[in-house]
Amino acid sequence: MSHDATLETVATPEAAVERLEALYEAALEAERLALDRFTRDGTPPTAEERARFRYPLLSLRWQADGPLPRNRRAWGKLQVEGDHRTTVTHPAAFRDYLLSQLRPLVEEYGATLSVGRSEQEIPYPYVLEGGDELARGGVSAAALARHFPVPMLSAVGDEIADGLWHYREGAPRPLALFDAVRMDYSLRRLVHYTGTDWQAVQPWILLTNYQRYVDQFVGWALAELQRDGSPYTELVLPGGSTVTRDDPPEAAAELVAAAPWQRFQMPAYHLRRGAAGGGVTIVNIGVGPSNAKTITDHLAVLRPHCWLMIGHCGGLRASQEIGDYVLAHGYLRRDKILDDLVPPEIPIPALAEVQVALQEAAAAVTGDRGEALKRRLRTGTVVSYDDRNWELRWSQERRRINLSRAIAVDMESGTLAAQGYRLRVPYGTLLCVSDKPLHGEIKLPGAATAFYQRAVSEHLRIGLETFEILREQLGALHSRKLRAFDETPFR
């Protein structure tokens, strides 16, 4: 982030976002024109032209005047006087988010805003619409790299989120967890992994490790689009096709069947929810902690309201039955993938708002209450491994599992919770016991099929009902448990 850019003071958050949009569009247009000319006749951009290929810069200045405002928000707070800055990408797409973050800082703290052109260049792949426009010109990537900004790994990092950013005297502090180039990197990765436009991703996200949950979600979504009074308006499919409320059931089913979800590593489906927004996305992240970290690294830049893990687990207690639920309130992290970023000794707290909502949703969907619900829904620690064949190390793992009092085992939940904690995204886990590896109850083909047919639909509905409950609790959901003592002002 530059701290010597020429900045223009603006009066309101609305004016700031409008100016960000204008600067961003001007930068894209300048770079696209230069790229088009270069592919036509080989004329490179001049130094003056290249100076326009830059992200806009948003700056906030605050000087304390009297006592600090008192509120229970976990975000939208200023603790240190001076300048806070960040570069911004796609300000029109993030308009509502930017306004929601800026308004309390201006209205409650009296902060002043200014906008200008940063020194952070926009890599040329990020200004192209489809990504293949340059192939028709026969221009090599090496030739483009000589004259246009390219993605640089040295410029992309999570130092702010990971607490590795250090204040330097006279330098501005970060305003947000992610700057523009980090966001653009992830936005393109989301398209690659999920097979859908990143702008289709909704703020309520279900993460699963089984395609059967996706199939149930799609069936429920199609029914919602046909239901009178439903708040949902369209379903975005992998590959980019969209089912709307106007599509007859037969046509909708054909669109779903034709969606090329198999081409994508972690296919996603997005059910949009009217003008007010707040729809639901489901992503099949596959199996393992590596996928879990990969997708959440990228989803986090969209600042979702919550992600929930709904998938299968192995039950570790004799009293559990196939089809019972496990509500994780703690994690024994044996996934190892985040050990350097969030060491295993760092506790990953259960978020009360999410835990209560999951339990209330389970009661509402199953119809069980009291002891009947407790028999089916057990709260406890989940152990997440990076090795699917952890059972082959049972003699080494037995004591650790015993000490943790773990009641279930999987491969993703601990990673997803740690990522939510690390990247300040509310998280939760509700798993369904599909086998009991320590008690001789393994997944045999016939039993597995019967289990899937019975359990997946109910499990999915509990996740969806949880989001309905949490929609009314956004203020409390973005918990102070996720915030460090030196947080950025933006959520």
UniProtKB/TrEMBL annotation:
<dbReference type="GO" id="GO:0008714">
    <property type="term" value="F:AMP nucleosidase activity"/>
</dbReference>
<dbReference type="InterPro" id="IPR047039">
    <property type="entry name" value="AMN_phosphorylase"/>
</dbReference>
<feature type="domain" description="AMP nucleoside phosphorylase N-terminal">
    <location>
        <begin position="15"/>
        <end position="171"/>
    </location>
</feature>
<dbReference type="InterPro" id="IPR018953">
    <property type="entry name" value="AMP_nucleoside_Pase_N"/>
</dbReference>
<dbReference type="InterPro" id="IPR037109">
    <property type="entry name" value="AMP_N_sf"/>
</dbReference>
<feature type="domain" description="Nucleoside phosphorylase">
    <location>
        <begin position="253"/>
        <end position="462"/>
    </location>
</feature>
<dbReference type="InterPro" id="IPR011271">
    <property type="entry name" value="AMP_nucleosidase"/>
</dbReference>
<comment type="similarity">
    <text>Belongs to the AMP nucleosidase family.</text>
</comment>
<dbReference type="InterPro" id="IPR000845">
    <property type="entry name" value="Nucleoside_phosphorylase_d"/>
</dbReference>
<keyword id="KW-0378">Hydrolase</keyword>
<protein>
    <recommendedName>
        <fullName>AMP nucleosidase</fullName>
        <ecNumber>3.2.2.4</ecNumber>
    </recommendedName>
</protein>
<comment type="function">
    <text>Catalyzes the hydrolysis of the N-glycosidic bond of AMP to form adenine and ribose 5-phosphate. Involved in regulation of AMP concentrations.</text>
</comment>
<keyword id="KW-0326">Glycosidase</keyword>
<dbReference type="InterPro" id="IPR035994">
    <property type="entry name" value="Nucleoside_phosphorylase_sf"/>
</dbReference>
<dbReference type="Pfam" id="PF01048">
    <property type="entry name" value="PNP_UDP_1"/>
</dbReference>
<dbReference type="Pfam" id="PF10423">
    <property type="entry name" value="AMNp_N"/>
</dbReference>
